[in-house]
Amino acid sequence: MSGLLLAARHGAVLVLTLNQPAKRNALSLALRQDLLAAVTDAASDPAVRAIVLQGAGGHFCSGGDLTEMNVGGLAEGRARMSATHQLVRALAAGPKPVVAAVEGWAAGAGLSLALCADIVVAGQEARFAASFGNVGLIGDLGLLHTLPRRVGQAQARRMLLLGEPVDAATALQIGLADQVCEPGGAWDAAMLWADKLASRAPLPVAVTRALLSEGLESLLAQERDHQAALFLTEDHAEGKAAFKARRAPVFHGR
Predict the structure, then answer these.
(1) Which tens digits make up the pLDDT trace of 130-151?
(2) Could you tell me the strand order of the sheet in which 50-55 lies?
(3) Which positions ≥6 away from 175 have C-beta within 8 Å?
(4) Which domains does the chain have, with CATH numbers?
(5) Is the terminal CB of the chain with fewer CB neighbours within 10 Å at N or C?
(6) DSSP designation for 3
(7) What phi and psi, each to the nearest 5 degrees, are found at residue 163?
(8) Taking a C-beta distance cutoff of 8 angstroms, is the pair 25, 62 a contact?
């Protein structure tokens, strides 16, 4: 691997650590590729019975890497989304159960990544945000499938349309997180969940995950086409420029 992803085995549990703390583990293309390779390998390894996903340096994942969001046309945008969707399928619908250990920020694609997991454990200082609208995009990596199933339509609409952060206590209350623990304790708590999942019969676990993902493929197809078009909008360019300049974006709907 490139060093952007660390992999360690703890018995039957594979721990995958996003390792780009200087960027709050922004989900670069290289990191996505490493993560897909690791999860794909785990899917065919009978010795791996569960996966824990975490971030290094006090944050889970700050979202997509905006420095790489330079799409030249619809075909390029569609290809980018199709490649990313392989990772979504592997995590959300693959045979191995996944636990997300969230400390700090899980924003944008980081939130989407966390919600590909079966269990979400959050430190008390964790923050969740569907911040895609800030850069003129829709929620991706399957978020429009996973988020409503976690928190319900009304809460999902508020999170997706407003992009406002949700703290750990609220996340637990609305079902976005399954457990909240002391700051720095998410990994230990996640390992307890993973050990329980690893002890379950693997075949029904795999079938259950696949069946619970019904509807994901249809959503991903629509997400691919709409996001590819939004990559080319003036509002997306404005969102990126505003983020870089640390100012509020001014959108015009074009």
Answers:
(1) 999 999 999 999 999 999 999 9
(2) 5-10, 13-18, 50-55, 98-102, 119-123, 179-181
(3) 150, 151, 152
(4) 5-184 (3.90.226.10)
(5) C
(6) S
(7) 70, 15
(8) yes
Q: Are 99 and 194 in contact (CB under 8 A)?
A: yes
Give CA–CA dist 191/252, Å, rounded.
46
Check if the beta carbon of residue 58 is closer than 8 Å to that of residue 23.
no
Q: How far apart are CA 68 and CA 80, in angstroms?
A: 11
Concatenate the DSSP letters of all residues of 59-125 into one string.
-SB--B-GGG----SHHHHHHHHHHHHHHHHHHHSSSS-EEEEE-SEEETHHHHHHTTSSEEEEETT
Cα torsion angle, 92, 161, 167, 84, sign: positive
DSSP string over 175-228? TS-SEEESTT-HHHHHHHHHHHHHTS-HHHHHHHHHHHTTTHHHHHHHHHHHHH
Contact 235, 165 (CB under 8 A): no
Mean pLDDT of the chain: 96
Residues 112, 114, 119, 124: is their CA dihedral positive or negative? negative
**Tokens 């199709």, located at residue:** 82
What CA–CA distance (Å, rounded) separates 181 from 126?
Answer: 10
